[in-house]
Amino acid sequence: MKILSPQTFPPQVPTRRRHRPRPATDWARYRSCLRWDFGFTCPFCLLHEADFYGGQPGEGLGGTTIEHWSPRSMDPEHRGDYENCLYACRFCNRSRSVTPILKDGARLLDPTADAWADHFAAAGDLLAPAAEDADATFTHRTYELDDPRKVVRRRARRELVSDRLALFRFLGGEIETLLNLAAVLRTRNVEAFGEALREIRQLWREARRALEDLARFSAIPSDAPGTCRCPSPVRFQLPPALEAQALEIDF
Predict the structure, then answer these.
(1) CB-based contact 37:242 (threshold 8 Å)
(2) Coil, helix or strand for 53?
């Protein structure tokens, strides 16, 4: 299973769309395609669905929305275009509202055209705009990328995933040591062998609990769609920039 890293870092490349769904006047029909194209992650603040839903299926709960790059009220002609739709968390969507793409000499950065790492850097649990980068500052302010509600979710994932990964790796080493010891004791000391087995069982239970917590941050949610509106078959996979950050965990 692939889980999220403790922290999602700004991608080094823009998000490339792989899906080409059939046109729809109701843009909500694009959700399946958008979830996969954006890796179940808001491309603005980098929060993943798991940061909102705690690893449980979250479709229909309102944590994520479809953002119109060119606002519907300003550009109704393109409100149904897939290329004008992005996957975003509800915080980012509401923060922007109908702010235009260009304002006061600055432009909103587009995650499908701009590499986020060129304009932002992870600074602790914050997403800091590059110095003297007017577009990054404008984007940061418009989407409120460091809204306290976002920061606390980044911190919660970083602390939990880091802690459980360290615990799981530590317990794995302890279990291996005890198994080796138990193999020696099996024929020499029945009582000590039994005690070693009890210790192994307890450590295994703790390791399983750590894995269960990590599973809540699966990079691909349990309710990830297996179908979409694309007329041609599309491989359901994470964007390469997010795939590279995911961690492989053996259960």
Answers:
(1) no
(2) helix
Contact 4, 243 (CB under 8 A): no
Summarize pLDDT for 124-173 with one digit per residue, the tens. Answer: 999 999 999 999 999 999 999 999 999 999 999 999 999 988 887 777 66
CA gap 63, 57 in Å, rounded: 11
What does the block give as tokens for 122? 């992870």
Which residues, in sequence order, are CB contacts of 22 under 8 Å at separation 6+? 229, 230, 231
Q: Are 16 and 112 in contact (CB under 8 A)?
A: yes
Query: pLDDT digit string (tens) for 56-105?
Result: 778 878 899 999 999 988 777 888 899 999 999 999 999 999 999 999 99
Q: Which two tokens stand for residue 85?
A: 């739709």
Closest by Cα among 129, 131, 154 to 143: 129
